[in-house]
Amino acid sequence: MRGSLRARLRRAALGCAALLCAAAPATAFNPEHVAQLTATKSCERCDLSGAMLEKADLAGARLSGADLSGAMLAGANLAGAALVKANLRSADLTEANLERASLQEAEMNLARLPRANLAGANLAGAGISYADLRFATLRETILSDADLTEAKLGQAYLVKADLTGALLNGADLTAATARDAKLYRASLNGAKLVRAELWGADLRRATLFDADLTEANLRAVDLVGANLTRARLTGADMKNACFCNTTMPDGRADVSGCRECEPPRTPRSGR
Fold this sequence. Notes:
By secondary structure, the protein is mostly loops. Helix content is 12%, strand content 1%. It has a two-stranded antiparallel ribbon. A hairpin with a 5-residue loop joins strand 1 and strand 2 (253-254).
């Protein structure tokens, strides 16, 4: 009786294991495409999903339209790579070098990019919502019209980055350094900018509904036409900030600086 029960339990366990294996996603990349990329650094519109490319030297690679979803690219050198319209969803780009790379219209939702070097990269219009970009280097990176909804940008280095028209709703920019950043018309509703360094940033016509700017450095920031309704500004340094048709947290319009505003003066930025 006991032997029969053990046999039934064993068969049930084996059946469950088989079902789990069947449900688990198989490696989807095309081995021939991986070999082509390795040999030529060119594999446009290739299937590289889930490929193991950690620390690969892919500088200047041509990967436009490639499927790199779930690819393991941690530490990879993608400097100058062409990744236009590439699918990088759930890809691991931790500490990857994407300096001067082109990622226009790339999909990077839920991508992992902490400490990645994206200095000077062109990510205009890229879908980077929910991406992990903590500690990433984004100096002079072009992120105009990019979707960074709820992205993690804590302590990211965004000096002189171009975020014109970018969507940063709900993004976490705690202690981020964004001196001289262009945030013209950017949407920062509900964004967390606690202790963020925004000296000299261009926030003209930006929307910051419910944004948390507690202890942020807003010196010489241009806030012409910006909307700060219900924003939290406790402890924020707003010396020499430019207010003109600016909607303040209490809903009133501040026009105090319309005549006196001067071009932002910022300290030297370097890293």
